[in-house]
Amino acid sequence: MTEKWELDTEYLSYVEDLLATEAVQKLANYTQHVNSTRLEHSLSVSYYSYQLAKKWGCNARATARAGLLHDLFYYDWRTTKFDEGSHAYMHPRIAIKNAEKITELSDLERDIILKHMWGATITPPKYKESYIVTMVDKYCAIKEASAPMSANLRNKWHQWFPKKQSV
Hints:
Distance between the termini: 38 Å
Mean pLDDT: 89
Structural class: mainly alpha
Helix content: 55-70%
């Protein structure tokens, strides 16, 4: 996860009210992708998505806010099961309900949160910002889950191929 978000005043102006809520801070108590908390994951998705939205002329504010709220749920997704559908289907709906308790959502923000599991769910996103968060969410999940394996491979690489000392 990047810490650059903490120094980005524009980004902070979009999400600081959400970050100040207990609802968002509680995400720090839940493991998300093995090596990250749900808050760390949500911040990564939010900030990387915001950067892409800004670069591509999209609605950076809505992207940042919805990216932060996309996984606003409070259960262990590995063990909790639902009669109404899979975790991929249910948690975006739960996240929207939880988000609406702390802020008003635009149609764009609602679509970003609801459709961020596209690929695992059927209905495609309606907006380009929704596609951004969907893809960044997958990227962050893979990066977070594979971090120890990547570090282990780097260590082995350096053991096998140590840098030569120049004379």
